[in-house]
Amino acid sequence: MGSEILRDLTFDIPKRSFQFLTGPSGAGKTTLLRLLFMSLKPTRGLIRSFGRDINQIPRDELPLLRRRIGIVFQDFRLLDHLTTYENVALPLRVRGKEEASYRQDVLELLKWVGLGERINVLPAILSGGEKQRAAIARALIDRPELLLADEPTGNVDPPMARRLLSLFLELNRLGTAVVIATHDLALMDQVNARRMILSEGHLDIYE
Fold it and tell me: Structural domain boundaries of the chain?
């Protein structure tokens, strides 16, 4: 089965908590986020999500549980045939909500992340930083209980990185637990937050 990427980890993500996940490239940060998002199952060990053992959750229930989690991928995963507005609104559309109930929220969030003038643009026209911000807005639009962000500031300039960090902190203040995977030490130094450091498959936690 190959070598283990992660092993002998024991930790929890408390409700309303804020933490950074860091470590060298290849340490397994993205793998750990995928485990938390339940898109990957461990080869051994136990993961409990919202009080439930993920190995005991029926496959058809997983999408419902994942709706409680917002995730920002490094590769954005925007749908090329949808505009910026449509990509951000997609989680709400999938849930069957009427556009009138969320349109203003989507527009305000896009304006906040600096995409107010790009709402009708397709992803192919957006820069890497703009795609990153659109992906972040999509992850936040449904006010998730847990937000997982994989290098969310990797494609933006320092002022926008600080602005996005402020958005994550505000979301956390409103009750969302936040996990940000990042190499950006300057970003982490701006917040007195828990640090989870992956190295050689192991996890050290500094409160």
Answer: 18-206
